[in-house]
Amino acid sequence: GQENIGGFYLRESYYGYIRWGANAKVEELGKRYPQFISKVVERNLQNIALDATITVPTTTSGGWQLLDLPTVIKASQAISSEIILEQLLESLMKIIIENVGARKGILILENAARIGQERPKEIWEYREDRGLFPMGELTQNDLGDRLPMAALNYVTVTQKDLVLNDATASPKLAADPYIQQYRPKSILCAPLVNRGKAIATIYLENNLIKGAFSRERLALLKLLCSQAAISLENAKLYQDVQAFNEELQKSLKELKEAQIQLVQSEKMSALGNLVAGIAHEINNPVGFIAGNLIPIAEYVEELFEAIRLYQRYYPEAIPELEAQIEAMDIDFLKEDLPKLISSMETATDRIADISKSMRTFSRSDAEKKVEFDIHEGIDSTLVIIKHRLKANGTRPEIQILKEYADLPKVLCYPGPLNQVFMNLISNAVDALEESNAGLSYSAIETNPNRITLRTRVLLGENAVEIRIKDNGPGISQEVQQRLFDHLFTTKAVGKGTGLGLSIARNIVEEKHGGKLTVVSIPGEGAEFAIALPIG
Predict the structure, then answer these.
(1) Which of 121, 135, 265, 365 is the most buried if burial means most Cβ atoms within 10 Å?
(2) What is the DSSP letter of 84?
(3) Dist CA 102 CA 205 (whole Å)
(4) For the residues 10-25, what does the mean pLDDT come to?
């Protein structure tokens, strides 16, 4: 009559027989004392040997059956080992379907409520013939065609398990539209709860057999669901972290792009204002000089004609005048002064060309694209950096080889595009000067520094291509992989910011919808290719 004490001894004995492997004795105790032994199933299983079994009461015979504990542990480990949500759901549903005896399973995940909206439910379905597949986010009203809402509502509200041996005969569910339409036999619906919080609801169905979900299978499901609830919570947290990381990466990328755009805009604005100001200041005096050279030439010609006439009609000049004419070497002046005026005209034309190139280079055209001669842009860039190409005390002049095709005008932003040409050609000059280190003047003359500029129309692509190639030291594969990265540079501190090529790619690809690539073999130079759509 001492049931508390007796029950304690019975349960301890039951554990002992399980550890010893005395399965016959375990089964006998289960049959004789089911009111005490049933609680054993819910006890902590960690102290039981891994090759042991669990006994649970059956609903059909009133007796007891043995569940294979290693199978339960193996299934639990398979569930707990997954952290990727979709992989976890696939593993979870497959294990449950195989071990519980269902033919169809639906897992309804609870998602956070959205302000002013009904909370959506993310639904996954598993079938023997199809495996796991998502059913999207559905509201409460959309679930009626997927499963019996009466069963789901009961489990959601009560947080209790619901097992029906014949759903069509259940007074509570017989009127449910899903039951009436699909007439399933066995139904099992259970909540997945972690720390008192509903994580999900699982719905299992067998439309062929009545009573498919026995009590031992429910016990097995509860064991699996305990681990599944924890794993689902961890997987959803991991998914949230991944999504948050993606948002951070996206924000970081946008911030970098904004920084590049800002640097680019500031550089072009400052450079444009500077160059435009210089060009404007140059134009005024150059225009004045060029305009005066023509009348000066005419005046000189008139003076020489007057001197000629004077010498003709007054051949006998006074001694003082003859001495002055001899000292002036008037014959030399007649020959050299027109040459001086001509060279001044050439110089003013050169300054005017530089001014024009500076204005071409600094064009902003920020509001809209305009038609632009690519060759004019490249040539204006060459004029700006011509001082870097000239010979100096350590090397001969850098040769510029032009292989221009007949290009149509390109619809683009000329100013930023000229900045790309400037950056790539300047980098080529830097590379050539780097390759000259340690070489004598004569050695460089033997293999002269060259920058080759090629253009062509890309047939069938409605695009043009500009190639800028040098015969410098080339670029290693490791550096090529990071060449266009933001703030990456191989130059010494103070000589490079790591923004030039990043900005260049942004201008070509983001601003113009083109493509900027590089091909280089160490020791054989580097070649940058710019592909730009024509229209």
Answers:
(1) 121
(2) S
(3) 5
(4) 77
